[in-house]
Amino acid sequence: MKKCVLGVFLTLMLACSKDNAVVDGKVVDDQNQPLEGVLVQVMGTDLFELSDADGNFVIDTKERGEELIFNKDGYQFERKSIDDVSDVILKKKD
Predict the structure, then answer these.
(1) What is the number of structural domains in the chain?
(2) Is 16 helix (H, G, I), strand (E, B) or coil?
(3) 5 lies in some domain
(4) Is residue 74 part of a domain?
(5) Residue 42: which domain range?
(6) For residue 79, is it within any domain?
(7) 64-91 pLDDT, tens per residue?
(8) Nearest-CA neighbor of 58 among 66, 67, 48?
């Protein structure tokens, strides 16, 4: 009986943990310099992270949304598909 309960519990834990989808990448400017403090947000949600000093980011999308938004003061807003986010280039505003 204990093995059966343990098996059911482990199955439920695995099923619940599958709702996480980690996406990572790097944000640079048009001179290929890393950008720190870029807001990286899953479109339509309150899930967000900031890029680090090397421009790197890691965000758990929790499998919600299909696009990421990249925003930083002084730079043009950028949207990218979650499937196409390895490197993101932000251009300065005119």
Answers:
(1) 1
(2) helix
(3) no
(4) yes
(5) 20-90
(6) yes
(7) 889 999 999 999 999 999 888 878 999 9
(8) 48
> Which tokens belong to 72?
């930083």
Which burial class, exposed, middle or buried, applies to 65 when counting CB atoms under 10 A from its CB (0-12, 13-18, 19+)? middle
Mean pLDDT computed over 36-61: 96
User: How many Cα atoms are found within 13 Å in the side-chain-facing hemisphere of 29?
Assistant: 13
Which residue type sits at 2?
K
Site of tokens 């000093």: 53
Instruction: Enter the tokens of residue 40.
Output: 């990286």
Q: Is 45 helix (H, G, I), strand (E, B) or coil?
A: coil
What are 7-48's pLDDT values in tens digits?
544 454 444 444 568 999 999 999 999 999 999 999 999 999
